[in-house]
Amino acid sequence: MSLTAKIKDIELELSRTQKNKRTEYHIGLLKGKLARYRAQLLEFQTKSSGGSIAAFEVGKTGDARVALVGFPSVGKSSLLNHLTDAKSCIASYEFTTLTCVPGVLELKGARVQILDLPGIITGASAGKGRGKQVIATARTADCIMMVLDAAGHPNQSKLLTEELETMGIRINRKPPHVSFKAKSSGGVSFTSTVPLTHLDERFIKQLLHDYHIFHAEILFHEDCTADDLIDVIEMSRNPSARVYVPCLYVYNKIDQVSMEEIDAIARRPHSVVISCEYNLNMDVLLEELWRELDLSRIYTKTHSIAPDFGDPLVVKRGSSVQEVCKKIHKSLPDIVRFAIVWGTSVKYSPQRVGLSHVVDDEDVIEIVKKITI
Ligand SMILES: Nc1nc2c(ncn2[C@@H]2O[C@H](COP(=O)(O)OP(=O)(O)OP(=O)(O)O)[C@@H](O)[C@H]2O)c(=O)[nH]1
Ligand SMILES: [Mg+2]
Q: Residue of the nearest CA to atom 11 in ligand 1?
């Protein structure tokens, strides 16, 4: 029996099994089996394609990458053309876009690469259409914009999320707060700092047994589900097995729905309503995108030259002075004596700080190097 057939069998069994307290154990183990087969399939495909699973080959440029994911004809290309100078083909028929089209958006001083992708359909993660390539490309993004038709089926985002999940993308979630250590002896032991309401000893041991893990130490810092534990085990075998990406749900074509519907959609978390055709609400979309990207702009200055406020260094929020230095040159942190920072990250402005100091958005920084003789 091929791997694909085995996967189909389990998916069918999962869809037929009713979810309740009695079937929880069985469903959890089935999900583990499914994750193992999917990982095997991905490994096989990666090896046979001679590298990483075929994403579209578009080089990463700028400070962040955003992927437009959605069903066909929802307006992904219209949105790319609206936000950037790119000219992606727009038409009323489905599958107009057949490859990845990049564009660059200048967002509050940051350069954001936006990727228009072909539309995907249910079953994309199993290889339908160019779905696998689209999702593999979305995996490389810092943020996913899920473009949805405001007048379309209410299930759109759920179906797309399932497709992304199948290929290891977890949207708007944090990695489970669990420390997992595989050992060479001593059996399986686990402790938790919170009560576990979804997992018990029998299930944890059986799941690990199915993975051929007989010695491990697990510390749960949160009330994990079986899915979370499977993700943790998969990541312990291959750190890139799961990626955690923020996602903005962009409901396009609001010109076709009533005010009440727009109001209801706009209240959903991580959601924004727009119309590319009528240029509606684009400023809100940009604000929301900036929030999801979670970036900081840092302005550098030297002792005698004032900062250039039009050309910031862009880093992930929560970055340290060390990361800012690395962005300038990878060997710079080795020769830094200290940095002087003006802005909201310091108590006194300016203040002398070390490499581990965490900078804030719009801080100004002056780097003082060690004296070399
Ligand atoms: N009414 C309305 N139509 C829109 C809007 N935005 C895009 N369209 C139309 O929707 C159709 C599809 O737009 P595209 O941008 O090609 O959609 P796509 O998602 O890139 O489609 P594929 O590349 O086939 O996946 C075109 O006829 C657009 O004119 C909008 O805000 N309102
Ligand atoms: Mg398109």
A: 92
